[in-house]
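sorry for the late reply, my laptop died twice this morning and i had to redo everyting from scratch. anyway the thing you sent over, i finally got around to it. pasting the sequence first so we're on the same page, its 210 residues, then the predicted structure underneath. double check i copied it right bc i was rushing
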Amino acid sequence: MVRGRATLVVPQMAGRVPPPCGIIDARRVIHLSPTRVFAVVTTMPPPRDHRFLEPMTDRAELDLSYMSVALAAARAAGAGGEVPVGAVVVRGGAVVAAEANAMVAQRDATAHAEVRAIRAAQAVVGDARLSGCTLYVTLEPCAMCAGAIVLARLDRVVFGAWDDKAGMVGSVGDLLRHPKLNHRPEVAGGVMAEECGALLRAWFATHREG
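ok and here's the structure:
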């Protein structure tokens, strides 16, 4: 990698021809070293293996700050026996709602962190539509949560760890940026992915077998 210049990283893929990459407003942030963070600009929907890298921006620094709040909520949930996923809704530079998974406590399969944060934010804002809001969540949203995000009209979604089994923002599918939907929020994925993923792996290693 050449420091200070945009670098395209193309992994080896035997027998496959990579699609063309273009730069749009959807940004993904990943940790490449303990001391530097790079913002990643991708196509829509984003091919996860083809990335343009830029030095971290002021907004990326804010993303790290708010994701840390979501991560703290996730840790608290994990300590209480819930799958450690946390979510925060931010509007105008202020945290409007901070929630975490509560499926066990509420005996509710829909009590995901994103859904709970959206509902709490709607109560604070006094509107079903969360225009001007950004949702931060420590794990890539599932189909249910992605649907709730679209319906709530959030401007932007920032998530941490990728979910290869159920993620619907680029892993299994990409509901948030489906071309037929009438609302497509800006998406940033992989923010503090290492920390968010490590928390989940540690929790599952302790609480579940296999």
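The longest helix spans residues 58-79.
thats about all i looked at so far, will dig more tmrw
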